[in-house]
Write a structure and sequence with these properties.
The protein is of the alpha+beta class. 43% of the residues lie in helices and 23% in strands. Among the domains are: 137 residues, no CATH class; 153 residues, 2-Layer Sandwich (Heat Shock Protein 90), CATH 3.30.565.10. The protein contains 10 helices and 17 strands. The radius of gyration is 37 Å and the shape is flat.
C-alpha cells in the first residue's frame, strides 16, 4: 500500500514580520543585559554616594552656618565620614582650586602640594565632575569685628531674670539672676530654670544675639539698635521684623524715643560676626567600577547596529502610527475650535448688518463666551503636551459643568434626551479642571452618539469606595451598546465605529484619567441594544 504523504500547512509569516520579531528579541536581550549592568553600577555608585553625601547631609542638618562650630571642614564628622572615605575625593573652592591636604585615593599624597600635583589634581577634578556632579558644603568661619549695640526693653516686670548672649552662649548682659560676676559662665544654666528656648536674632554680616528669659511671656517689646541709632532687631513693637521701609524705620525710632524714659535701656558689645565659605567636594568611581563602565558602551554599539538593521521596518510602522495620531489630533482640534469660531463669525456678521444699539451688548456677551471657550480649548491642548497642575477640586462641579454644556445644545439637535447626575457626599480629588471637563465631555458625546433614537437618557452617578479613598463615577446610557468582540478595543487609539470618527475620544479619556490623574477607567458593562456603563475611579485628596 502506498503511503500518501501528509502535508502540514504552516502559517505564513512575512519576512518583515520575522525580521521585526528577531529585532525585538535581540533588542530585548541586549537591554536586559544593559539594565543588569547598570543595576550593578548604580548599586556601587549609590553606596559611594551614601558614604559621602549622608555624612555631609547630617553635617548641614545639625549645623547652622550662622551659629556653627568654626572647625567646619576640620570637624571630626567631616574628617571621618567624608574625607577618609574609601573613594577618590578632592575638596576645592568654588574655582576648583584644591584645598591643601584635602584629597584622598587619587594617587597623590595629601601633603604633596607641588605645582605639578596641583595641576594634576585639577585634571582629576574635571574627570570626576563628568561622572559625578560636585556637591557643596558650608565651611563656617568667624570675622572679628567689634559692634556696640543699644537695647530698649519694655519688660512686663523689671524684676524678671534676663540674660543676653552671643551665638556661642557667651554672656553679654544679665540682670535679676542670683549669681556672682565670677560665676558668669553658669548664667545660661540659671536662666534655663525660667526659660526653655531663647529668642534668637541673626542677620547676614551682623552680630547674632540670644535673649533668654523672654519667650515664656506673650508680649515683650524689644528693639536692638546699632551705634548710629539704626534699628537692627525688634519684636512686639507693631512693626514686622522684615519691614525695612522708611515708614517702618520712622515708627521704630519713635518707639525707641518712647521706650528710653519708660523702659530698660542698656548697651552690648560683641566681638565677632559669623560667616562661611562654600567648598566643593568632588568624588570619582573606584577603579573596578571603571572596568564595568565599558560594558554598556559595548552594549550600546550592539543596540545601535540592531537599530540600524531594523530601522527601515520600524520606520513604516512609526509613520503609520504618527499619521493616525496627527490626523486624529488635527480633526479633534478642528472640531474643538470649529463651533466657537463659527459662532464668533456669525455674531460679527450680525453686528455688521444689525443697526439696533440694544443688540450690541448681547452680541458682545456671546462673543466673550466663545472667546472663553477658545481659551479653554487652548488650555486643554497645552495641558496634554505637559504635566498639568493638579489642585483640590469638587468633581461634581466639573461633571455638572459638562452636563450643562450639552443640556443647552441637545434641544437644538431635535432630540429629547435626559441628562442627569446623582452624587453621594463625594470627597475632593486632586485634579485639573480643564482636562477632566474635556474627558467628561468626550464620554457624554460618545453616549449621545450611541443613542440612535430621539429619546434616551444619560445618567452619571458618583459615590465613595468602601475605604473612602476613591471617588467612583458611573457614566450610564441606554444607547446601542458595544458588542463583546470589540469591548477590549474601545480604549485603543484609532478604534471607532463612526463613519467619520477618528478613534481618539476614549483613548484621550484614558490618558487624562490614568496618566495625568492616577485613576482608572473601565468598561463596566455593555449590552447591545441595552446600553453601556463606563466607570471612572479617582483617588481623593490625601
Amino acid at each position: 500500500m502506498a503511503v500518501i504523504p501528509v502535508k502540514i500547512k504552516l502559517p505564513k509569516v512575512s519576512s518583515g514580520t520575522l525580521r521585526a520579531f528577531i529585532f525585538i528579541l535581540l533588542v530585548g536581550i541586549t537591554i536586559a543585559f544593559w539594565l543588569y549592568t547598570q543595576l550593578i553600577i548604580n548599586h556601587v555608585r549609590e553606596f559611594q554616594k551614601s558614604a559621602i553625601t549622608t555624612q555631609k547631609s547630617i553635617y548641614i542638618s545639625i549645623i547652622n552656618p550662622l551659629s556653627a562650630d568654626v572647625s567646619g571642614i576640620d570637624s571630626e564628622l567631616i574628617q571621618k565620614g567624608v574625607i577618609e572615605s574609601p573613594f577618590p575625593i578632592i575638596f576645592s573652592d568654588t574655582d576648583n582650586n584644591p584645598v591643601q591636604g584635602r584629597w584622598r585615593n587619587v594617587g597623590i599624597a595629601p601633603d604633596d602640594t607641588s605645582e605639578a600635583s596641583i595641576k594634576k589634581l585639577k585634571i582629576i577634578i574635571e574627570k570626576m565632575d563628568r561622572i559625578n556632579p560636585p556637591d557643596s558644603i558650608p565651611n563656617p568661619t568667624l570675622i572679628h569685628r567689634t559692634d556696640s549695640l543699644t537695647v530698649y526693653e519694655m519688660s512686663p516686670s523689671k524684676n524678671l531674670p534676663v540674660a543676653v548672649t552671643d551665638l556661642f552662649g557667651t554672656p553679654l548682659y544679665w540682670r535679676n539672676i542670683d549669681i556672682g560676676p565670677a560665676d558668669s559662665i553658669n548664667i545660661i544654666m540659671k536662666i534655663k530654670q525660667f526659660d526653655t528656648e531663647p529668642i534668637r536674632f541673626n542677620k547676614e554680616n551682623e552680630p547674632s544675639l540670644n535673649f533668654c528669659g523672654m519667650s515664656v511671656y506673650r508680649k515683650w517689646p524689644l528693639i536692638v539698635a546699632k551705634n548710629n541709632g539704626d534699628p537692627l532687631y525688634w519684636k512686639d513693637v507693631g512693626v514686622a521684623q522684615n519691614d525695612t521701609s522708611s515708614s517702618g524705620k520712622t515708627r521704630l525710632s519713635a518707639q525707641m524715643r518712647y521706650m528710653r524714659p519708660r523702659g530698660i535701656v542698656y548697651n552690648l558689645v560683641t566681638e565677632n560676626i559669623p560667616d562661611y565659605d562654600i567648598l566643593l567636594f568632588h568624588y570619582g568611581d573606584p577603579k573596578f567600577l571603571t572596568w564595568i563602565v565599558w560594558l554598556p558602551v559595548i552594549e550600546f554599539l550592539v543596540i545601535f547596529i540592531l537599530i540600524v538593521v531594523g530601522f527601515v521596518g520600524f520606520r513604516n510602522i512609526t509613520k503609520a502610527e504618527q499619521h493616525s495620531i496627527w490626523v486624529g489630533m488635527a480633526k479633534e482640534t478642528a472640531h474643538q475650535l470649529g463651533t466657537p469660531i463659527s459662532s464668533i463669525d456669525g455674531w460679527l456678521e450680525l453686528m455688521k448688518t444689525e443697526h439696533n444699539a440694544s443688540f450690541t451688548p448681547q452680541a458682545i456677551k456671546e462673543i466673550e463666551y466663545d472667546v472663553k471657550r477658545l481659551t479653554r480649548v487652548a488650555a486643554r491642548f497645552s495641558n496634554i503636551g505637559s504635566r498639568p497642575e493638579l489642585q483640590p477640586i469638587h468633581i461634581s462641579n466639573v461633571i455638572d459643568e459638562a452636563l450643562d454644556y450639552f443640556k443647552a445644545r441637545v434641544p437644538n439637535m431635535g432630540r429629547s434626551i435626559i441628562l442627569d447626575s446623582h452624587y453621594n457626599n463625594l470627597s475632593q480629588i486632586m485634579g485639573n479642571h480643564e482636562l477632566l471637563n474635556w474627558a467628561f465631555e468626550n464620554l457624554i458625546k460618545n453616549s449621545l452618539a450611541s443613542i440612535e433614537s430621539k429619546d434616551g437618557k444619560i445618567i452619571i452617578t458618583g459615590s465613595m469606595s468602601k475605604d473612602f479613598k476613591h471617588v467612583i463615577l458611573d457614566f450610564e446610557d441606554n444607547g446601542k451598546g458595544i458588542a463583546s468582540a470589540y469591548q477590549n478595543k474601545v480604549m485603543k487609539p484609532g478604534y471607532t465605529t463612526k463613519k467619520r470618527g477618528w478613534g481618539l475620544g476614549l483613548s484621550l479619556v484614558k490618558r487624562i484619567i490614568e496618566d495625568y490623574h492616577g485613576g482608572k477607567i473601565i468598561l463596566l458593562e455593555s449590552k447591545p441594544g441595552v446600553g453601556t456603563t463606563f466607570r471612572i475611579i479617582l483617588p481623593v485628596v490625601k
